[in-house]
């Protein structure tokens, strides 16, 4: 997954112009294969405390019409955005706003919001501090949010790492390059990817202009990308890209196995009989046609998704249920291949690497009947180009099998977004190392959606 920090010189309290600039940057980022864009502190209004003092009632809500260009750009291009602005807490219509980040998903809907916990100097007179730390999941990655002065408090990054976050996103307005030295330290001390979107252009009073230099740091503290100084930032802005594919939560992660299962008892149904209009496999890998079976709740959601596809497109189920014994065989065969290719790897490293492509049998969504391997086809059943063949391994495809992989053709990227938008809206989640793998009701689904427990456990076909 590529993520980006966007740096541009905001116009002072010109929300319309700044929202338009953000929308353009989101479109540019999407063309590069970016899945998430982070904007600087108060980028929507510019960091201007004097103006806020003169207009203390300025505040926005997630559905504010002035944010429509941003929401529409997210929806049109399938990219998420972290937009920092003044906002009141939900349900509060008067009083002092906070410095808040709205996280809009790739469908334009609000994923979460986070209000700056630690206020600096005059901010304390003009804004209300937040009360909870910021977290969200996107594309199999667990993100943490922080805003400017928050980053002077090491415990925020420590808590993020303890909570299982892999990437730490900072929206800031620093005027001095010396202020940026804390970011590699947060990365190195906590094993986190860190992405900073810093302000550029005019600041507030004596604080001076934003110094720019938005950047990205690896978990070992190395800086891998940087924008230019704020004074040199072009009006159209700059994007700083970071690849966080190694931050994806894999099936072998202990957090997945820790999800409890409360088996709901839904039956496995034969898709060919229950939904003959859905393109489905024949006998497949086993003589009993197991691959054409799914839990009934999964099938209902696939039919809902297919009805929502654009005209001329259909879903084809390549494989559904997989008997536990077959799942174990696939996993062990692939793990054995990796052991031979990488004899220096530990057993745990092999298990983790294998789970990018084949789930460990004890938690496998396919063995629970909750997973569907899917492709898009035209109305006559001709497969749409999805960027790789179905079931291409990470080694074979050089990572292009990852759903948000950079560098795939634009048409394939659009096809993946179309597939993802319809299936996500129907309630399924994607395993980010495989663009074709979607599931509902299994342990990975529960982890990604925040459900208390999985609905489906491993099951034998009656």
What is the topological layout?
Layout: E1 2-7, H1 15-31, E2 34-39, H2 49-54, H3 68-77, E3 80-87, E4 98-104, E5 110-115, H4 123-126, E6 134-138, E7 141-147, H5 154-162, E8 167-172, H6 182-190, E9 193-198, E10 200-201, E11 210-211, E12 215-217, E13 223-226, E14 238-243, H7 254-257, E15 268-270, H8 271-274, E16 293-295, H9 296-308, E17 313-319, H10 324-341, H11 347-354, E18 371-378, H12 394-397, H13 410-425, E19 429-430, E20 437-439, H14 443-449
Parallel strand pairs: 1-2, 2-3, 7-8, 8-9
Antiparallel strand pairs: 1-14, 3-4, 4-5, 6-7, 9-12, 10-11, 12-13, 15-16, 17-18, 18-20, 19-20
Helix pairs in contact: 1-3, 5-6, 9-13, 10-11
Domain CN hydrolase: 1-246
Binding site for Zn(2+): 366, 373, 437
Organism: Streptomyces catenulae
Question: Describe it for me?
Answer:
This protein has 14 helices and 20 strands. It is of the alpha+beta class and about 450 residues long. The protein folds into 2 domains: about 1-245, Carbon-nitrogen hydrolase (Nitrilase/N-carbamoyl-D-aminoacid amidohydrolase); about 255-450, Muramoyl-pentapeptide Carboxypeptidase, domain 2, CATH 3.30.1380.
């Amino acid at each position: 997954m590529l993520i980006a920090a966007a740096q541009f010189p905001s116009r002072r309290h010109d929300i319309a112009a700044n929202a338009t600039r953000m929308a353009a940057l989101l479109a540019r980022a999407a063309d590069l294969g970016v899945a998430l864009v982070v904007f600087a502190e108060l980028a929507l209004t510019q960091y201007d405390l004097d103006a806020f003092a003169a207009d203390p009632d300025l505040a926005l809500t997630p559905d504010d019409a002035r944010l429509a260009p941003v929401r529409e750009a997210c929806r049109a291009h399938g990219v998420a955005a972290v937009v920092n602005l003044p906002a009141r807490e939900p349900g509060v219509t008067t009083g002092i706003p906070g410095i808040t980040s709205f996280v809009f998903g790739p469908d334009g809907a609000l994923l979460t919001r986070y209000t700056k916990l630690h206020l600096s100097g005059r901010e304390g007179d003009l804004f209300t501090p937040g009360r909870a730390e910021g977290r969200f999941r996107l594309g199999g990655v667990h993100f943490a949010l922080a805003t400017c002065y928050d980053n002077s408090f090491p415990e925020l990054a420590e808590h993020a790492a303890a909570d299982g976050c892999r990437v730490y996103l900072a929206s800031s307005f620093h005027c001095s390059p010396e202020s940026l030295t804390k970011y590699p330290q947060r990365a190195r001390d906590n094993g986190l990817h860190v992405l900073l979107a810093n302000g550029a252009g005019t600041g507030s009073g004596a604080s001076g202009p934003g110094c720019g230099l938005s950047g990205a740091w690896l978990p070992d503290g190395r800086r891998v990308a940087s924008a230019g100084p704020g004074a040199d930032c072009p009006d159209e802005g700059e994007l700083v890209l970071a690849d966080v594919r190694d931050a994806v939560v894999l099936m072998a992660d202990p957090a997945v196995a820790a999800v409890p299962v409360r088996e709901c008892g839904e039956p496995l149904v034969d898709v060919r009989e229950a939904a003959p209009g859905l393109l489905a496999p024949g006998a497949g890998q086993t003589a009993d046609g197991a691959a054409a079976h799914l839990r009934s709740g999964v099938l209902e959601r696939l039919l809902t998704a297919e009805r929502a596809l654009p005209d001329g497109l259909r879903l084809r189920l390549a494989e559904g249920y997989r008997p536990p014994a077959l799942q174990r065989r696939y996993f062990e065969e692939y793990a054995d291949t990796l052991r031979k290719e990488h004899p220096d790897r530990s057993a745990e490293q092999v298990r983790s690497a294998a789970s990018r492509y084949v789930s460990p049998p004890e938690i496998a969504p396919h063995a629970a009947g909750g997973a569907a391997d899917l492709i898009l086809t035209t109305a006559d059943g001709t497969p749409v180009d999805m960027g790789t063949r179905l079931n291409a391994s990470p080694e074979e495809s050089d990572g292009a099998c990852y759903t948000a992989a950079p560098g795939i053709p634009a048409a394939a990227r659009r096809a993946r977004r179309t597939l993802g938008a319809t299936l996500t809206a129907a309630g399924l989640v994607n395993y980010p190392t495989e663009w074709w793998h979607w599931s509902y009701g299994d342990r990975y689904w529960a982890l990604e959606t925040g459900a208390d427990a999985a609905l489906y456990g491993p099951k034998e076909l009656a």
